[in-house]
Amino acid sequence: MALERYLSEFTPLLKVDPTAVQTLVDALIDAYKTEKGVYIIGNGGSGANASHLAEDLGKGTLTDFDNQKRLKVMSLTDNTPWILALGNDLGYDKIFVEQLKHYAKPGDLLISISGSGNSPNVIKTVEWATEHKLRTFAFTGYDGGKLKKMSQVSIHVDSWNMGMLESVHLVIFHYLLDTLREAFKKLALPA
Questions:
Q1: Burial 103-141 (b: 16+ CB within 10 A, else e)
Q2: Cα separation, 94 vs 119, whole angstroms
Q3: Which of 3, 7, 143, 173 has its CA 20 to 30 A from that of 16?
Q4: pLDDT at 1
Q5: Which stretches of the chain drop beneath a pLDDT of 70?
Q6: How would you class 149 by CB atoms within 10 Å of its CB: exposed for 0-12, middle for 13-18, buried for 19 or more?
Q7: Are strands 109-114 and 153-156 parallel, antiparallel or unpaired?
Q8: pLDDT in tens, 141-188
Q9: Residue 70 φ then ψ, to 5°
């Protein structure tokens, strides 16, 4: 496939719902101000994106490392021994929800990333989060699957090409980073 053709197929996918993206921006700013937790989940490439987003939101939003308040953000994809223990002892569908039970409080945010929108461990976690009054946000592709329908806010990429839709998710994540860095700087909230 020639690069020109690939890019001509990729570029239209960048047209995601700007209202949904802004709703997530506003929720993250509110979480920052009110010290709510932000938890991020996903599998495979989406799991790598979850780790990347958590790192960007945790470190990349800071402009004053000594004096600035920090967003309380965590990717639940990163503690390999805990994930393996949960998967082995309870089942892979519980690797995120069982971690979330340790940390989450009503009003916290859960950001779920799933290309298919049908990953059982993601679905189970969003169900628990909804029951426990967390705010749920989803990044999906394909037809959105169950996740698109059950999340309070869904940022959907209308593509069946996993690589392309994961790349669009990353574009939005980097937009969040740049936007939040500026917003947090203007707020100038002390640590």
A1: ebeeebbbbbbbbbbbbebbbbbbebbeeeebbbbbbbb
A2: 11
A3: 3
A4: 65
A5: 1
A6: exposed
A7: unpaired
A8: 999 999 999 999 999 999 999 999 999 999 999 999 999 999 999 998
A9: -120, 145
SS3 labels along the chain? CCHHHHHHHHHHHHCCCHHHHHHHHHHHHHHHHHCCEEEEEECHHHHHHHHHHHHHHHHHCCCCCCCECCCEEEECCCCHHHHHHHHHHCCHHHCCHHHHHHHCCCCCEEEEEECCCCCHHHHHHHHHHHHCCCEEEEEECCCCHHHHHHCCEEEECCCCCHHHHHHHHHHHHHHHHHHHHHHHHHHCCEC
Closest CA to 170 of 4, 55, 31: 55
| Other Cβ atoms closer than 10 A to 17 | 12
For residue 28, give Cα distances in angstroms to 7, 16, 42, 69, 77. 31, 18, 18, 13, 20
Closest CA to 137 of 165, 172, 178, 163: 172
One-letter amino acid identity for 143? Answer: D
